[in-house]
Amino acid sequence: MSTEIVVVPHTHWDREWYEPFQRFRLRLVALLDEVLDTMEREPAYHFTLDGQLACVDDYLEVRPENRDRVAALVESGRLAVGPWQILLDEFLCSGENIIRNLELGMARSDKLGGAMPVGYLPDMFGHTAQMPQILRKAGLLHACVYRGVPSSVTTDAFAWVAPDGTALRTQYLPVGGYGNGAYLFSDAEGLEQRAAGFVRTMREWHGPEGPLLAMYGTDHSAPVRGLPEMVAAIGARMDTLSGYIGAYSGDVAGLPQVHGELRSHARANILPGVISIRPHVKQAMSRAERMVERYAEPLAALWGQEWPGRFLDMAWWRLVDASGHDSVTGCGVDDTAQQVAARIAEAEQLGQAVRDMVTARLAQDVPSDGMLIVNPTPAARRGVVVVDVAGTDPLVDPSGAPVPVQPLEYAATLLLDEEMDPATALTFVHGTELYGQHITDWTVEDGTLTFTVARHTSVVVDLDDLRAAIGGVTRVRIVAEPRRTVAALVEAPPLGHTSLRPAPRERVYGGDEAERLPGTHHPSCWLSSDSAPLPVRGDEEVLDNGLLRVTIAPDGSLTLVGQDGTTVTGAGRIVDGGDVGDTYNYAPPLHDTTVSEPVEVESELICAGPLVSIVDVRRTYLWPASGEDLDGAPEVPAMTRAARMEEIAVTTRVELRAGEPFVRLRVDFDNRCADHRVRLHVPLPAAATQSYAEGQFAVVSRGLTAEAGCGETPLPTFPASSWVAAGGVAALLEHVTEYELADGELALTLLRSVGYLSRNRNALRPEPAGPQLPTPAAQSRGPRSVSLALMPYQEGWGEVLPHAEAFRHDLLVVPGLGESSLPLPEPAPGLSVAGDGVVMTSLRERDGWRELRVVALTPDATQAVVTGSFTQARRADLRGRPGEPLDVTDGTLRLPLGAWEIATVQLSGQLSGQLSGQLSG
Q1: What residue spans carry the region label Disordered (predicted)?
Q2: pLDDT above 70 for 435
């Protein structure tokens, strides 16, 4: 037989899955020990290490003495490592996480001798639309995929085209995926016949000429002994994946084209249920990514002193590690999910530490009775913040102008009033701290010792005098300064900061006696400019801010009427149905029971404006307690739901703020049920055959169906990262959320509860997706909370972009830490990024430059206008390698962007935040 087959020995290494990471690592070390020994013993042996450097890192942490052995094999071209740090799930992490993953894997692979120049994506549960552009801008000319490829692909190579037009030669792995050659060398007997059958099958895909790719390996597999001899016996040759694919130039001429994301069920299962299982992990991942990407890094780059690179690197390590396709997906055992959640929490904590370090430094210039307000978005913002301040005086901004406020809550002022031995009371005092505040004064009168305490004080109290004065004291009182929690409407510059503080009422309003009541706001605050928002008004039935009117129906659902008349009726309906599937695939019982009508509805007005109006809608439902296995066998899916009911109270907080064209919702309930799915339904104002969902540097259009073919039932449920829009209504999201357009409604999955990693028999998937292991924690029992917002629109989804940015990135409030005598510092802008459809995804420091990444979320060419105190700019690729210089005029860069283009630019010169930072530091 001629050399028609190129054998690529490899392992597909799930870092954590049906066993947690450290248990799998024990097996990994044994496997790589054997691989190194075999490759050194047999010079013809080649091995591909699954496209992820994590395997090498995990191995060398245990076997550091073998680094040179690994590097020698990589340098020789016989061992292929990278380009990824870890094989990710592309839909359950941010686009920036994808880039950092690739950046990290390629940089670390280079230190071992070079990364495999192939975007190897062998087992992801579908692929994002912009992956070809990401790979190309990182310097890769080839991709290699298995799942998600549509039926229109009938060859083993195609041109995968990103929304921006980038076309990448993509190797498809048909007929068995990354294990299509695993059976060839099971034993020597019948080897030639199996090889001949392989050639006949693969020629149908490849065509009459050229070598055929045989991926010899599978999950957690080790190399078979004597493989070189068996390969030689059939006239084949052995190589790495990059060796095989590298024979092609990357030219896509003549190849069939596939545009956008790959989420077809035609060729392989894509296991879409992972999007909605263990929702707390998805929430934590999105929250941690935002903390690092949009708070910690940009603030440190603009307003920090020494770049906290090591802390941020550690955060990104954990985020990238958590993005694994059996990690953030939640389709592992409970131990794995617990470890992933801990990793994500550490990433968020590292980001918080960096954010707080930077803002604490800025807060040193704000008096202790004031508040620093930080804007994490690159556009000027007017928004509502909630602040805790002393006294009842009005708030002012740095110009001395009054800030509109709305009292929300008053703190207790009497903290203690009891008969007590004063010696005991003195044991509560630590220095000048008492009950978490500072002593500002004390008095003894009529046998009562009274302490006065405050959050901040410059008063020094002599407690020695106190000890001499407590004779005869029988009662102790602790009185705190008056404090209140208020909503305040503030304006903040782009990626910059401002501040506010209380000021004496007489100084602010002069002789206006009408404004001497505590907690009121001056009417002129609402009339200061034509663009000032109208106040929001509310009661238990209607909330209205002039941009959006929200009416609460007797059944607890909402009617939304936008300023343009777009009307959504019946929004926020909660629907509970059975789910007897597993962590991979939703599956309803054969005889399902759905519950959509509450048995009781109550509404409570929390606050009525003028900045914030809130109503809590409490709906009580009777949900079936679980699914039922009629024959008691766990491998047989339940046919029905239990007759026993649980009474579940679902509270939806409906919040409308001044100036926002969307209503904020927070849905809370205690999940005491099992084997079910809970969705929030939003009827569409207009009929829609397409949805538009944002995620990973793109807005993807999807229809009402999904392509079938493999066996897995192709449910038209899809992921959305920050928003999804259809038919005139958009849902703004805090985390990746599963959605579906069904029966004229947008259905958003709040929770999916199941009890098995994989069921051997799933009604909507013909074969197991993994071992049938119990996952009781995947039932997600206990308190659940999901936040989102709903926004009617009329002109198109482009309206949604700026509001989704504002919803996901709240203004940050930090208590002032400076001397009380300080004036408020002037508002300080950081960096402005503007342009139709232009969204900032990253801002950090790299090699002395500030590196900014933006994406054009628009089907048309546009321009990013970047403004700040920089003097030089240049393009860079996704690995940070500098490119062409760019013109900067008066601190402004005008950057042309093609439709859907991801652009990275590096800026040099003093950015505005650094002027007061590093120079004074």
Answers
A1: 762-782
A2: yes
Please say whether the beta carbons of 373 and 492 come within 8 A: yes
Torsion angle (degrees, nearest 10) of CA 469, 474, 480, 481: -50
DSSP labels, 349-367? HHHHHHHHHHHHHHHTTSB
Alpha helices (H) along 629-776: none
- Residues 559 and 557: their CA atoms lie apart, in Å, by 7
Residue with tokens 């035609």: 266
From CA 871, how far away is CA 889, in angstroms rounded? 8
Considering only CA atoms, which of 518, 452, 517 is closest in space to residue 486? 518
What is the 8-class DSSP label of residue 326? Answer: T
131: left (phi over 0), alpha (psi -120 to 50) or beta: alpha
Name the CATH topology of 537-794. Answer: Beta-galactosidase; Chain A, domain 5 (2.70.98)
Res. 1: pLDDT tops 60: no
- Span 334-370, pLDDT tens digits: 999 999 999 999 999 999 999 999 999 999 999 999 9
CB atoms within 10 A of CB 306: 9
Is the pTM for the entire model greater than 0.90?
yes
* Contact status, residue 174 vs residue 147, Cβ threshold 8 Å: no
Domain 5-268 sits in which CATH superfamily?
Answer: Glycoside hydrolase 38, N terminal domain (3.20.110.10)
Choose which CATH entry (3.40.50.1970, 3.30.1490.20, 3.30.1330.60, 1.20.1270.50) describes domain 279-364: 1.20.1270.50
- Spatial separation of the C-alpha atoms in residues 768 and 777, rounded to whole Å: 20
| Three-state secondary structure call for residue 201 | helix
The answer to whether residue 704 scores a pLDDT higher than 90 is yes
Q: pLDDT tens, 149-158?
A: 999 999 999 9
User: Is residue 62 helix, strand or coil?
Assistant: helix
The Cα–Cα gap between 721 and 347 comes to 19
* CATH 3.20.110.10 domain range(s) in the chain: 5-268
Characterize the bridge pairing of strands 475-480 and 414-419. Answer: antiparallel
SS3 38: helix
Q: How far apart (Å, rounded) are the C-alpha atoms in residues 51 and 47?
A: 11
Q: Looking at the predicted structure, is the pLDDT value of residue 546 above 80?
A: yes
